[in-house]
Task: structure prediction
Amino acid sequence: MTATSVEPPIKAPIRARRRRDPSSYVVLAALIVLVLVMLIPFVIVVFNALKTPEEYSTNGPLAVPDGIHLQGLKDFWERVAFGEKLLNSVIISGSVAAFAVILSVLNAYALGIGRITGRLWILVLLLMANTLPQEALVYPLYYLSKQVGLYDTRLSVIIIFTVIQSAFGTYLLSSVLGSFPRALLEAARMDGASTWQVLWRIVVPVTRPTVAVLLVFFFIWTWNEFLIPLVFLTSNENQTVSVALGVLQGQRLMDATMSSASALLGIIPTVIFFLIFQRTLTRGLTAGAIK
Amino acid sequence: MAGRRPPPTPPKPPRTGRSRDRAAYWLYLLPGLLLFVGVIGVPFIMNIGISFTEWPGIGTPKWTGLDNYKALFSDGEFWASFRNNVALIIAMAIIPTCIGLVLAAALTDFIGKKFGPRTASVLRACIYLPQLLPVVLVGIVWSWLLAPDNGAVNEMFKAVGLDSLAHDWLGDPKTAIWSVMVVMVWIQIGFPLVIFMSGLQRVDPSLYEAAEIDGASWWRRFWHLTIPQIRPETYVCLLWCTIASLKVFGHIYVLTKGGPGGATNVPAYYSFQNFFDKTEVGYGSAIATILTLIIVALTVVFLRVQSKDLGEEQ
Result:
């Protein structure tokens, strides 16, 4: 809707040159069909979240709701103290996203630009943070966190996921930085810039689209993590949204409309987050172009 | 390793300055390495230790030496689960990467230019949406859609008169793995798409303009310009999705619980079962150790190919 309403005037002459021939409408139509297929499951969730349990049992899960019933949403919100869980998830996912991006940038700078000896093996080692199945980490980490007194704190989950998520960031960024234009680095070094200055003034700005992608991924991945938060955040006031969702689901205390309501409430925050950061994902276009 | 790589620029800076620089870069790696040792290194060694014991998760583990590994190698269920994993690698890594490449190029180069970047990013957001869905919810939603009696998929077939195609998609051993594959493709496509679209932003637009002036068709530009330009991202995507498919257990858990009759069981889910359902933590640790070794070996081979391919290009 808003997609076509505002057009920057500068782009007009370029646009005029590229005519929209019939084939471009075919491509657009094909993509829209694909998108609709992708969205069907979400539509069903929204439908059921807005139904009453009676309506659900008479009309089935696929019928369009008669009206808008927010009781399911309200019940779920109150039962799990959703506001508190939301805050925990935001704190944990936000911190992990920020710290893991910083860690990834530092690691990737040493590996991709610094090209330190044995970088392939260091990368393999760091990637183990992700290759190791999480269920294998749970028991050892449980004992370690008890030893250092971090068990049942949000900090423990933040530290663990900062390391796990940064494995992907290190890999993606160091691959991208491996083909970083050397001339740009040499020029900066000629001007007497230190490695620290090169990192923040040249490398980070140029790779900003990739860094933005990492920030979005880390936030969403951490938001949806279940197993480790479930084990490490035992007290109710530390729990995250996806733990609350999973626990209630496992207890089978919810009917179908309430699970849909919980589903809807559970993904709204990440959808909002993604839509906000959509803009960062494309803004790099001009800022990041290497000439 | 360093000897294989030809110097990128002929006028090389003095040797001493270069190696002092290299040493300086180790400092940047220090925080990452320290955190890694604490959060991954030590627990992994502990996991290997546990794999030599018999342990229900509480009390004192009983040392049994290599017993778990011996049992593992003759455990048919474990090795059979690898066959299903091949199907998941295709569904989670290969198909999404291929579709993602075409979609990313179409959205950036075609929709973005002809209908504006905003149209492109709205479409991207919709395709990425399944990635936002927590695993628990994936299970709920798809169980509804694929339900044997009044599921949306079967209703749709009936509506167009293809009643004979209606099916218990997740309950029949023949179709269960295919149904899981379709769900995994649906989940995964958004991931390569977002990575590739961000990668395409690094590409100098004048390359495309030059190709367009030369009269190269869209497919030719896609094949000769787009794909080579985002080769680093393609490698990352393929490896990452392959690792993810070797580790997947949440989706299997919510969709089929490995069934029917082990038709959709995978090693990671098998290890999860041993850890938490059967509480055979020692055996679970042994599976996790073997799985980790397999993934690490794959990673090493893959990274060597990648660094050779990308290194020679420069």
User: Anything to note?
Assistant: The CA atoms of residues 51 and 212 of chain A lie 38 Å apart. Chain A touches chain B through 112 residues (CB under 8 Å).
